[in-house]
């Protein structure tokens, strides 16, 4: 389905700069402090979504912005079907994304009894308010700790004006996980074994990946981005690459649902790993020469990755990588460092 926004109104809002901070930041409650710290993207006005059956009991709900728009806060969801109920994987980046998911999965015919959150970034948790009260919410323990820190974030203003995201009256609210795990837990939906696994530090401190070994399906959350630039806002690049290597070597993985972009497999994961390796290699070289993160991001040759959505994310990615080199890394977003790198990148690239 395609959801079309009121383009005249959106264009006007865009001109007035109300979108400039970007969805993730508005949700994080830091918009005014660091505009566009995590990229130049503006909320898309056309988002296409599709329920894709992967096996008799597993589906991906793939969301993608219209050509040329930003993937900012547009994430994929998943669904595993049991005899009497279903498991949801993530909740989308806005109320409307969750409503579209719930409507699309209605045809499968079972109620959701549980949601696994892959990590705490707003584009994966903002749809939780649309799920039935009492649904069990599972997350890795660090993800829950990060969600506790969010408190009550503001409601992005465009939820009321851009129908691809929400409607008037939608209110942003963080709903906390009711069950946490450290290393792993196993759920059963009928005969379908569902392993929920912490892959070690990767895209965040507390990622959860959902593996269906019997079906050779892996929902990797934002450990995987296909055709969309990975966002390293609170990641650990060296460890993230190692996590990719473990998934690439896992014989029980064939189909991979990324957090962003189309469903793929190991070839796509290896390609994404190449982005992280490029970032690490070129970032190290620049860091050792004393080049600033923003300049390193502006000067890197992204090659084929330059065509992926939101390539300017290389700036916050580099800022975070520099803290990894300095050994000052932690689970939180460093919006000041990301914003400084983004501003320098925009200046050097002539982005005004
Ligand atoms: Zn995401």
Radius of gyration of CA atoms, rounded to a whole number:
19 Å
Strand order of the largest sheet: 1-2-3-4-5-6-7-8
* Ligand names: zinc ion
Amino-to-carboxy terminus distance: 35 Å
Order of helices and strands: EHHEEEEHEHEHEEEEEHEHHHH
Query: What is the global morphology?
Result: globular
Give the helix level as a range of percent. Answer: 25-40%
Overall SS class: alpha/beta
**CATH H-level homologous superfamily name:** Ribonuclease Z/Hydroxyacylglutathione hydrolase-like
Give the SSE map.
Layout: E1 2-4, H1 7-15, H2 23-28, E2 46-55, E3 58-65, E4 77-81, E5 86-89, H3 95-105, E6 112-116, H4 122-125, E7 136-140, H5 141-150, E8 179-181, E9 184-189, E10 192-197, E11 209-212, E12 217-225, H6 237-248, E13 255-260, H7 266-288, H8 293-299, H9 314-326, H10 335-349
Parallel strand pairs: 5-6, 6-7, 7-8, 12-13
Antiparallel strand pairs: 1-2, 2-3, 3-4, 4-5, 9-10, 10-11, 11-12
Helix pairs in contact: 6-7, 7-9, 8-9, 8-10, 9-10
Bound molecules: zinc ion.
Zinc ion binds at residues 75, 121, 123-124, 222, 259-260.
